[in-house]
Structures are given as C-alpha cells and as structure tokens.
Specification:
Blueprint lengths: L4 E12 L2 E12 L3 E6 L5 H9 L6 E6 L2 E2 L5 H5 L3 E3 L11 H13 L5 H15 L14 H15 L3 E5 L7 H18 L2 E5 L3 H7 L2 E6 L2 E6 L1 H13 L2 E6 L6 E6 L4
Parallel strand pairs: 3-8, 3-9, 6-7, 7-8
Antiparallel strand pairs: 1-2, 1-4, 4-5, 9-10, 11-12
Helix pairs in contact: 3-5, 4-5
C-alpha cells in the first residue's frame, strides 16, 4: 500500500531568532485530510503553516513533503504542488479580479493551458464560489469579504490537491462564513483535497473538520476528533471551559465557551 503521508514534521523547532515558540514538534498530515489548526494567539499557528507550505524554514528539524525534504524543492515545484491563502488580505492589487484568478492558473499549471481551458476553469470556480459578478471588477474596489473570495478562488485554481489557509473566513459575515465552509467541505470531498486551515472559530471546527490540532506555547497540546479534543483540552489551550451539544434536529452541533468557574 502506498504511503499516504502528505506532510511529516520531524523534531521541529519553531520561532524567530532567539524567540523560540516550541521544540521537538512532530506532526503528520495524510493525503485527503481536512485539518483545522487552533490555539491561542502567539502559539505559532501561522509559523507552523509557513513551515509546512515551504514559505519559511524551521529553526531546527525537518519538513518532509510527499517524501521529499521541503528545503530541497524549488519554488516552481512548490507552486505547482500547493497553494496558500494568507491571513493578510492585500489592500491594493493593481489588477482586475479575472487577472488575479488567472495568476492561480499560471502558477498551478506552469502556464500550459490554452485560452479555452483557462476560461472553463475560471468560469467553473466563479460559479462554485458565486463570484461571477466580481470577475471583471477591479480588486481595489471590492470589500474585504469580496477580496477574500477572489483570493480563495485563486488558491483553488492554483491547486486543488493541497491548500493551506490562514483564517480564510476573515471579513466574511455570518451567512457568508457558513457558505464558505460549506463550499470548502464540498470541494474537499469532490477533489479528495488535503486542506490545512487555521481558524479561531470553534463552531466551524466542530461542524466542518474531522480533525483538529490544538497548538499551545510549548507545542501541540492535543489532536484528533474536534469535540473530544476541545472538551478535553480546551481549558488548557484557551483558559476557557468549552461546552458542546447537539441541536434537536441532530444536523448541527453547538459550541459555547465560559470562564472556568462558570
């Protein structure tokens, strides 16, 4: 049976210069996993995502990507293998939205698509994400939430097999947040994608993710089934009691937080 490991983190030390966030961190992500990374501010969630995606190198340890040391891969190899939706939404990009979507296709396919293929792929993703009306608008004219949708579309066009996302639903209203996570799960199942997502939204974690990795100041606190992990280790991670239950229709789970004494 072929190895299903997509990313393996071995004995990793994370941080910046003398500011060490954690040491001896080990983690494996398998092909087709849909994983949330959660934890308090300052625990190194974005740092960990940057290491896994090859955007930065750990202070020590090794990141193995599809059986290869990630530090040995070229930028072109990384660009055609994975995509990254950053936490930061640029205030200004001097292009219209279609140009930005095309950038995802150029990176993910080495530019080997003809005009018809490009049009088909862009049309399909715009329909999937309900952003067709934004396609010909200038990026700088969009709201923060609309910009996130376009950048999510670009990430999907670059790679449907491995996608890293850092707070992808930032700036989205509650209805659009639900739409986003519905679409994320749908696309994950359609493409058997590996998706690794940083989010603080505990409600989304327990309703959309099969696995969560809970990060603390000294490394991974807990990982596994979101409900079990948050009940078991939520107070350690956030200093809060986390209460989880199921609505009467059994289709959705609720999550409430309280101070430890409450």
């Amino acid at each position: 049976m072929p190895d299903q490991t997509m990313i393996k983190i071995k004995n990793c030390t994370g941080g910046y210069g003398k500011n060490i966030l954690w040491k001896h961190l080990d983690l494996e992500i398998n092909r087709g996993d849909l994983v949330a990374i959660a934890g308090a501010n300052g625990t190194g969630k974005t740092t960990l995502l940057n290491y896994m995606s090859g955007l930065a190198a750990p202070l020590d340890g090794e990141i193995i990507f599809r059986g290869n040391k990630i530090r040995d891969l070229s930028l072109e190899e990384l660009a055609t293998s994975r995509s990254f939706l950053s936490q930061q939404t640029p205030d200004s990009i001097p292009f219209n939205c279609r140009n930005i979507l095309e950038m995802g296709l150029m990176a993910g396919n080495r530019g080997h698509l003809n005009t018809s293929e490009k049009d088909q792929k862009i049309t399909r993703i715009c329909e999937e994400l309900q952003i067709s009306e934004l396609c010909n608008k200038h990026f700088n004219c969009l709201s923060g939430g609309e910009k996130r949708k376009i950048l999510f579309g670009r990430a999907l066009l670059q790679s449907t097999q491995l996608i890293f996302m850092d707070e992808p639903a930032a700036f989205l209203d509650p209805g659009q947040t639900l739409f986003f996570y519905d679409k994320l799960r749908q696309l994950h199942l359609q493409n058997n994608s590996t998706m690794i997502v940083i989010t603080h939204n505990l409600d989304m974690i327990i309703n959309y993710f099969p696995k969560v990795v809970l990060l603390g100041k000294n490394g991974i606190i807990d990982s596994g089934d979101p409900q079990k992990v948050l009940i078991r280790s939520g107070e350690t991670a956030f200093g809060l009691k986390i209460h989880i239950g199921t609505y009467q229709n059994q289709k959705r789970t609720w999550c409430k937080i309280a101070r430890p004494h409450a």
